[in-house]
Amino acid sequence: MALAIDASTPAIAVQSNGATTTCTTASFTPPSGSTLLILYSANSIDPTSPAVPTITDNLGAHLTYTRYDHSVRSDTPNADGQACSWTAPVATGAAMTITVTNQAASGGRHAAVSVQVLTGADGTTPVPVHGESGSTSTGTVNQSYTANATGGMGFTAIADWNATGVMSAGTGTTRIGSAAVGAPDYDYGFFRRTTADDVATSSNAVNATLAGTSNSVRWIWVEVVPAAGGATVNADATLTGTATISAAAASDKPVTSSPTFTATISPAASSTKPVDATLTGTATITSAGASTKPADSSLTATAARTAAASTTKPVDASLPTTATITAAATSTKPVDASLGLTATITPAAAVVPAGKSIDAAPAFTATITPAAATTKPVDAAVSATATITAAVSTTKPITATLSGTATITTDASTSAAQSIAATLAIGATVTVSIGGPTAKATSTALVAATATSVPAVADNRTSTPGVT
Amino acid sequence: MAGNKVGGPPISPWTYESADYLGRAITFTVVFNEATLDITSARIDRDPGCMYTKIFLGTGGDGSPNSSTRQFSVGQSTGHPVSPAELNAAGIATFTDLLQVQVTASP
Predict the structure, then answer these.
(1) Is the ipTM of this complex over 0.85?
(2) Interface list for A 423-442 with B (CB within 8 A)
(3) Of A31, A315, A316, B52, which has fewest CB within 10 angstroms of its CB?
(4) Residues of chain B whose C-beta is under 8 A from some C-beta in A?
């Protein structure tokens, strides 16, 4: 269990009457198992060193108090004032007050008592290191100490006999309270480390700044350490989680998306502070699903073919061919699927010279499957379009090169139906039927890239015997 | 050291301060005439959420501040004036009266 100051800690009690020996805290109820740290700051009458103050409580069975240091003038240097500290274990919590009795002569009994109720302190040796000091010329009390244990916390009690004014906290230090006592007759100051940030064997300090340079200051200091096994977790701290998120989405589709993610990390453990529990965290990562540019890239497919065929008949028709390939698959969310594309290829009307005619309308179909497939989520719509334009023109007889590889053979000796078959490298098959029982032309086209089409093939034969 | 601080010249204002376990403080400030020592004003200031809401002046018959009849509550307010009349009714009319008692605070 980590060391902590309990909410039951009573306020500082200040005795403003220099003739009254006692200074009593308001009633408070410490929890069972807690440890009381009593800090004391008081006046004295120069040049006398008062005897050790006594301490008690109003319980029927008094607590057992262990005193550490009593800083007085007889300790070097010859600075007046006094400071003292005790601890007392609380076996069973009960409403109580604590009274400290000043042993200084009447008129110099101004005092202040600060009780700190600590939980998680070592029950056997709550204060393994402590000390006292004084100064006849200082404007600060920066009391360093070598920490005995990690998670410990330093405290000081200061008596500024010169009453230079209210003290302030220095680096890493919190002021429990500081004020003038009496007319003023002296100033008290109680300070602690802001957090239990001691690191075993490392130096730490409780830092206080006086209102001015005092020529008579006394103080004590203690380090309270946590029980063995105590953790240093400060449950007041903000738990900050950092998540590194890698979008595993890999797509070989033309998708330009920027998925964004938010991560919420919640500690599984809830606790009151301070805690020594292990905080385990879980992370929930949610894709916002926002795509900044959902797949608006184009799939560009090209098809090429070479009409290697030659006709023996004069053909002067041109074959303007236009193919439009549209990616049928669109997705507004990440896709793991292949994009299936279909192509509708519509041959343009054959251009037939005047006085010529062809005996059948060329037609073919093509199924095109792009090789690309997304394997991982892409929160984007995916669409692709491809436009293939083949501007084929032939003169007669034709040995047209369309680019790519295509072979067209025709049987010019028949006017029967003809057909052209094309095989796409990616797997598509194109069949062009000109009509009649015997094929008049065969075309083989190589399809490149991820999508292609086979352009319509028009019969350019214009003077083939038998073809009208 | 020369001299002692007992009976130094009164300096106004007089203050009491104590922080709770989280460092939130309650402060009791008394302003008085340094010549006549008459109290002219007083107020209690309290950091938001401070555990302490009452100022106890003196102790009761059992020696506990809680049984003192001279208590001033600020409640959850962060600032609360205490009039000289209120202090006077509690037997605290001058700074000298204030110095006769101990001061502390409580939830």
Answers:
(1) yes
(2) none
(3) A31
(4) 1-11, 14-23, 25-26, 51-52, 56, 59, 62-66, 98-106
